[in-house]
Amino acid sequence: MESEHSELVRTWSAALQATSGSAPSDPINEHLLSWLVHDLAHALTTTPFDVDAGARAGAALAATDLPVTDVVATSVPVLWALTGPGDDPETVRRMSLLLAKLGEGFGIRRQMMFAPPDSPGAAAQRMDERFRVVFDNAAVAIAIGDTNGVLLNANQALADMIGVPADDLLGISVYEFAHPEDRDRIRRLVYERLVPHKQGTVKLEQQIGRADGSYGWAAFSITFVQGQVGHPDYLLAVGEDVTEQHRMREELHRQARHDLLTGLPNRRQLLEWLDAAIRDAGPRDRIGLCFVDLDRFKYINDRYGHGTGDKVLTAVASRLNNSVAGLDCLVARIGGDEFVTLVPPPVDNERMAEVAERLLGALSEPILTGGNQLDVSASIGAVVTTVEGGQAEALLDAADTGLYRAKNRGKAQWVLHTMPVDDGSEPDPVDGGGPTGGAR
Asked: What domain of life (predicted)?
């Protein structure tokens, strides 16, 4: 049966043939292997989860005339290709359980076919040996722990993730390699929710400590397993290193909130800052916004070209950002030649005057680019307002209104608008301004 997994089937067939050391009397039927692969792949994605697909595959393998030695160990890494690097933790967990069942099914079928009657203890030992093959050869991290969080067993993949020998993990608490910030969440989800209910699975994506002192990211599915008669309950954890995926998500998050040209935060990031300031503000907290717009920037684009204009914007962004360094201000580019500086609490008119003067002063020297010496100035509309219960867009609109008032006064001006204060007090007057005087 030709399918999307045909290449995997051929790889599996070749690997199984090689375990015999010579051509078997009954060559592996690729048609059979294709159906087994299809069954396993189907079990990875369907609900409810058909874990017995693994046992069926193991039993079918045992029915061939291949030697027992290394059949399961050979099959595990080949079949792991049914998962991919970006698969979610649930798919990884299912694959691990399917392969464990494959080893179990293989062992049971071989015992039924060839082994003499045996004690239950010996049969269980052989099944444990089959599980051990899957456990040791799995490409994902697998750990077994007691219900208090002490590791009873860990495979090489988990040891490699942490950077220690597997034996060093035995007997330690899971909290020893969990990041301090994640420990409370682990306790709540696993030991206060999963363990008391004695059933189910929880999923975690958390930081994981490495032997070299660094932290990576790992995604785990942790399942409560009820022990058989005479044996304690335990937790089965299956996970994978997702450090690179986490880094990529963080980079995408950063790119979505930063201006590609200047590297400054963009409008989206600014609004999130404002929303956070509004959410955390007390009743008397005031914030300030300086809306900066370059004067006659269109002339630079028209006269020298957009390439030069982009270099000017980059230089302006750097100067504005550096001018308020140390004042705990946040500078963003929100579009075109418009920039906004957020001044967090505590804010009064004098502080806003200082910020506005610094921003204008940052552009007092010409910008040199492409052999040209360009004079650049800006107008600033500033606003000081109580923030509790406000709206981010409304605050930006207020600063924008002040900007138009500043532009009407000429180049390199700033205008400060102080919105009413809830306690009825009057704002302090502003004595200074831009190079030709500020206004309130």
From this structure: Bacteria
Rounded to whole angstroms, the Cα distance separating 44 from 24 reads: 31
CA dist., res. 232 & res. 317, Å (int): 63
Distance CA 251, CA 197 (A): 38
Residues 118-136: tens digit of each pLDDT: 544 454 555 466 566 777 7
Beta bridge partners of 3: none
Give the pLDDT score at 102.
87
Distance (Å) of CA 275 to CA 247, 328, 421: 25, 17, 19
Are 146-255 and 257-418 equal in CATH topology?
Answer: no
Sheet with strand 234-241: strands edge to edge: 151-154, 141-145, 234-241, 215-225, 201-209
Higher pLDDT: 195 or 114? It is 195
Q: May I ask the CATH architecture of the domain 257-418? A: 2-Layer Sandwich (3.30)
Among 285, 293, 296, smallest CA distance to 390 is for: 285
Taking the C-alpha atoms of residue 433 and residue 438, their distance in angstroms, rounded to an integer, is 3
Whole-number Å distance between alpha carbons of 52 and 45: 14
Residue 354 CA to residue 384 CA, distance in Å, equals 13
pLDDT digit string (tens) for 180-234?
A: 999 999 999 998 889 999 888 999 999 999 999 999 999 999 999 887 767 788 8
For residues 58, 64, 68, 71, the Cα torsion angle rounded to the nearest 10 degrees is: -60
- Domain residues of the chain, as ranges? 1-139, 146-255, 257-418
Question: What's residue 423's pLDDT?
Answer: 44
Cβ neighbours of 21 (radius 10 Å): 9
Q: Is 402 helix (H, G, I), strand (E, B) or coil?
A: helix
Q: Give the Å distances, CA to CA, from 390 to 286, 287, 387, 414.
A: 11, 11, 5, 24
Residue 142's nearest CA partner among 225, 44, 55 is 225
What number of H helices and E strands is found in the chain?
15, 12
What count of other Cβ atoms lies within 10 Å of the Cβ of residue 419? 14
Distance separating the N- and C-terminal Cα atoms of the chain: 81
Contact status, residue 224 vs residue 126, Cβ threshold 8 Å: no
Burial environment of residue 42 by CB neighbours within 10 A (0 to 12, 13 to 18, 19 or more): exposed
At the topology level of CATH, where does 146-255 sit?
Beta-Lactamase (3.30.450)
Q: Are 348 and 308 in contact (CB under 8 A)?
A: no
For residue 277, give Cα distances in angstroms to 286, 353, 356.
10, 21, 20
How far, in Å, CA of 40 to CA of 380, rounded?
65
Q: What angle do CA 126, 131, 137 make, to 5 degrees?
A: 130
